[in-house]
Specification:
The protein is mainly α and 132 residues long. The chain has 5 helices and 4 strands; from the N terminus they run βαααββααβ. It has a single domain, classed as Arc Repressor Mutant, subunit A (Orthogonal Bundle).
Length: 132
């Protein structure tokens, strides 16, 4: 089963779950046409409500990243290349960089050298084995 890592942070939980799916696509852990775990599987593994995962999946459907089909589950769209899931974010970064006078090369260098000031905490869809 696909392992999703949900980062803690200021975004609502459903948006962080959606981000975890996008990250899995970009990292190549799931590709075009591949099935995603059911909302119930993800919810159980993360210890969240199933509706939170369904909301994340609907968001991914609405932005064109996945397909949802009744009785068939969720799949990464076959026509979405992995880098496409970041296109809007990259475009927004380039617009913001231009507003402060940075060109694309300077923005790319900023991304390359950026390190979070504190490590992110995570939740994953796989739980540690019970020691008993």
């Amino acid at each position: 089963m696909l392992r999703l890592t949900v980062l803690d942070g200021p975004l609502p939980l459903h948006e962080r779950v959606a981000a975890a799916v996008r990250r899995a696509i970009v990292e190549g852990r799931v590709g075009p046409g591949d099935p995603l775990p059911t909302a119930l599987q993800v919810a159980d593994a993360l210890g969240v409500h199933r509706n939170t995962v369904l909301r994340a999946y609907r968001q991914l459907r609405d932005d064109g990243t996945i397909e949802l089909r009744a009785g068939r589950g969720a799949r990464v769209r076959a026509d979405v290349p992995p880098g496409e899931v970041l296109r809007e974010e990259v475009d927004a970064l380039l617009r913001a960089a231009a507003r402060v006078g940075l060109d694309a090369d300077a923005a790319a260098e900023l991304v390359r050298t950026r390190r979070p000031s504190t490590p992110a905490t995570t939740r994953t869809t796989t739980r540690p084995k019970d020691p008993t």
